[in-house]
Amino acid sequence: MARKESVTKEMILQSAFSLAREEGIENVTARKLAAKMGCSTQPIFRVYENMTQLWIEIYQEAINCFTKYYEGFHLEVETPFIHLGIAYINFAREEKNIFDLLFLSEHRNGRSLYELLNGGTNAISKEINKAVANGCENPSGLFMKMWIFIHGCACMVLTGDFDLTEEETVEFLKDIYKSCS
User: Fold this and answer.
1) For residue 54, is it within any domain?
2) Using the 8-state DSSP alphabet, how is residue 3 labeled?
3) Total count of domains within the chain
4) Which of 20, 45, 52, 112 is the most buried (most CB within 10 A)?
5) Is 55 a member of any domain?
6) Range of the structural domain that residue 39 is part of
7) In angstroms, rounded to a whole number, what is the distance separating the alpha carbons of residues 40 and 17?
8) Domain-located, residue 57
């Protein structure tokens, strides 16, 4: 009879994602992961041919994490792009290492920021449609102007330089929307 596997692929992936969340993707090594799981590196390499394969799956878990966060984020505001903006900024605050992996890393598995944000949530498309419904003539251009501010705020969160309250940030975003729409 074959011996039952005590370390499963799901266990490895969840431990690896947890390690990436706590310490950053660059610290997800076979040795650190094995230590976290209390096993040798052998079960890791039984499931994954190499660490690159595992990192690809960690990256997908990070996308799922952002999608779940965005879909569960509630902010009652009518102005387009503000819900997305505040969710994005708060995600940077609450999930620094995952934010860094998804939105600041050069290793995005060939995906652009637009594809990441619009992927499973259709976040950008929803906001652009909302802007069109509000009479905006150039919603894509408006999004780009607002996005520069939103992404800059999120990056400032990571460096500790962002000290605006959520209410102040919403007001800034409303002002940008009004001035550009």
Assistant:
1) no
2) P
3) 2
4) 20
5) no
6) 1-48
7) 18
8) no
Residue whose C-alpha is closest to residue 10's, from 50, 44, 59, 49? 44
**pLDDT per residue as tens digits for the range 132-173:** 999 998 998 998 999 999 999 999 999 999 999 999 999 999
CA distance 93 to 159: 10
Share of the chain residues as helix, strand and coil, in percent rounded to the nearest 5? 70, 0, 30
Q: What 3-state DSSP class applies to 31?
A: helix
Regarding whether 127 and 69 lie in a shared domain, the answer is yes
- The neighbour count for residue 68, using CB atoms within 10 Å, is 12
156 backbone φψ class: left, alpha, beta (φ>0; ψ -120 to 50) = alpha
- Answer yes or no: is 90 within a domain: yes
Cα–Cα distance between 4 and 159 in angstroms, integer? 46
Of 34, 31, 42, the closest CA to residue 15 belongs to 34
Q: Does residue 66 sit in the same domain as residue 44?
A: no
State the pTM of this model: 0.90
CATH of the domain at 22: 1.10.10
The set of residues, in sequence order, having a beta carbon less than 8 Å from that of 92 and lying 6+ positions away, is: 99, 103, 154, 155, 157, 158
Residues 126-138: tens digit of each pLDDT? 889 999 999 998 9
